[in-house]
Structure formats: structure tokens, C-alpha cells
């Protein structure tokens, strides 16, 4: 790799621009000559690209050898997809809980108890009567449940719902961004590869012309 390209890659790894969540932009190769000046530097350049995008070692391998060369962007894409899927499951649950808290809060103290069926486990349900109440219990996770006045519970759930929805929007935005960076890297790799193929053909053509000139010089005129 040329010194100019090496400096460019080093600087880009340090001062790379990122999206709002800190995901770096992929290097855009406009002119291959800015990265390689001869065919001898192609392998080094391609390796540098791979080092910028490769990740991790297989912890299950005793020799710690690298996993198949994979993109950091693809790795982040998979993680972001999983996070988005989790949020898509979580948001409806939060919304249903919020709706129920708002319903309970709207009931007057003089209202009659309401009958409902609640789940004890996957196959067992029970009937219950719910009188007007100004307190609810919310699961916070890790087997923790706390009692909240209904106004506080509503405020908490609205905050959680807003945060989850915003996180989902960020995930979807990041997925679009990651796909763009993956495409940019694929284009950069293809440009360097095509440049090498062109140079090979050019060198082969020049070598053939040199051999023809040499053959002509060896042929002496008769007489």
C-alpha cells in the first residue's frame, strides 16, 4: 500500500466520521490510485480493508484462529436486527399495560368491581374481581415488582414507551445506515480488484509487445 493510502487509512480509523450512534462511515474509494500505485500493493490494500472490517476470534477454537472474514458492519447489522425485534415485541406489551393503568385510573371510587380472567401460567387461568383502586403493581424485571400510585405508574409507562419507540426508530435508521456502508465497502473492494485485473491485462499486453520486438531483432535479413 502506498504511504499516502496508509496515512489516509490510519487517519480515517482515528478521525472517522460516524452516525449519531457512533457507527463509523466506510471509506469511499473514489480513485484507486489514491490507495495503490502498483499491483504489488493490491494485496496489502485489500488486507487493510479486511482489517478495517474484520472482527473477533472464535473463542471455541483452541488456537484462537480468526473466524471467517466477516464485516463489522454485518456483525452490527445482526445485533441491531435482534435489538429491533426485541423492541417490536416489547412495545405492544408496554402499550397494553399503559392502557390498563389508564383504564383503572379512569374508574370512580363508586364503580362496581369488574370481573376479569388473568393468567397464572401458560395453561392455567383464574377469575378475579377488581374493585376501584388507586394503586397498581408493575414488574420491573429480575423478579422485581413494585407498587405505584396509578398516576406515577402511567407516567413511568409513558416514559418507557417513548424510550422504546425512539430506540426502535434509531435501530431502523442504523440498519439503513449499515446497509449503505456494507455496499460502500463492497464497491471499494470491487474497484480495487477490477483495477488489478486491468493492470494485469495491461502488463501482459506490454510483455507480449516486448517479446514480438525481440523476435524481430533476432531475425536477420538473407544475403
Strand order of the largest sheet: 1-2
Radius of gyration from CA coordinates: 32 Å
Quick one: biggest sheet? 2 strands, antiparallel
- Total number of helical segments? 4
Residues in β-strands, percent: 5-15%
Name the overall outline.
rod-shaped
**β-strand number:** 4
How is the topology of this model organized?
Blueprint lengths: L2 H13 L26 H12 L18 H35 L7 E8 L2 E7 L4 E7 L2 E6 H69 L5
Antiparallel strand pairs: 1-2, 3-4
Helix pairs in contact: 2-4, 3-4
In a nutshell, what does this entry contain?
With about 220 residues, this protein is an alpha+beta fold. It has helices at about 5-15, 40-55, 70-105, 150-220, and strands at about 115-120, 125-130, 135-140, 145-150.
Question: What are its keywords?
Answer:
alpha+beta; two-stranded antiparallel ribbon
Could you describe the 3D structure shown?
The chain is an alpha+beta fold and 223 residues long. Helix content is 58%, strand content 13%. It has four helices and four strands. The chain has helices spanning 3-15, 42-53, 72-106, 150-218; strands at 114-121, 124-130, 135-141, 144-149. The protein has a two-stranded antiparallel sheet. A two-stranded antiparallel sheet has the order 3-4. Strand 1 (114-121) and strand 2 form a beta hairpin. Helix 2 runs antiparallel to helix 4 (150-218) and helix 3 (72-106) packs antiparallel against helix 4 (150-218). The longest helix is centred in the C-terminal third of the chain and has 69 residues, at 150-218. The radius of gyration is 32 Å and the shape is rod-shaped. The model is unreliable at 10-14 and 55-70 (pLDDT under 50).
Amino acid at each position: 500500500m502506498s504511504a499516502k493510502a496508509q496515512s489516509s487509512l490510519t487517519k480515517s480509523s482515528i478521525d472517522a466520521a460516524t452516525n449519531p450512534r457512533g457507527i463509523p462511515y466506510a471509506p469511499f474509494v473514489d480513485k484507486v490510485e489514491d490507495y495503490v500505485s502498483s499491483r504489488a500493493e493490491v494485496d496489502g490494500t485489500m488486507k487493510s480493508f479486511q482489517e478495517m472490517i474484520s472482527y473477533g476470534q472464535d473463542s471455541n477454537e483452541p488456537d484462537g484462529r480468526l473466524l471467517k472474514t466477516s464485516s463489522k458492519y454485518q456483525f452490527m447489522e445482526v445485533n441491531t436486527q435482534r435489538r429491533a425485534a426485541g423492541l417490536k415485541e416489547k412495545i405492544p406489551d408496554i402499550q397494553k399495560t399503559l392502557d390498563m393503568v389508564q383504564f383503572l385510573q379512569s374508574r370512580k371510587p363508586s364503580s362496581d368491581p369488574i370481573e376479569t380472567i388473568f393468567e397464572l401460567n401458560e395453561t392455567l387461568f383464574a377469575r378475579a374481581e377488581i374493585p376501584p383502586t388507586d394503586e397498581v403493581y408493575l414488574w420491573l424485571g429480575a423478579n422485581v415488582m413494585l407498587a405505584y400510585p396509578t398516576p406515577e405508574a402511567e407516567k413511568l409507562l409513558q416514559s418507557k414507551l417513548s424510550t422504546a419507540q425512539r430506540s426502535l426508530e434509531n435501530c431502523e435508521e442504523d440498519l439503513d445506515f449499515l446497509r449503505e456502508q456494507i455496499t460502500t465497502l463492497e464497491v471499494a473492494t470491487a474497484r480495487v480488484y477490477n483495477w488489478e485485473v486491468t493492470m494485469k491485462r495491461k502488463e501482459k499486453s506490454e510483455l507480449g509487445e516486448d517479446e514480438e520486438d525481440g523476435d524481430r531483432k533476432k531475425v536477420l535479413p538473407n544475403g
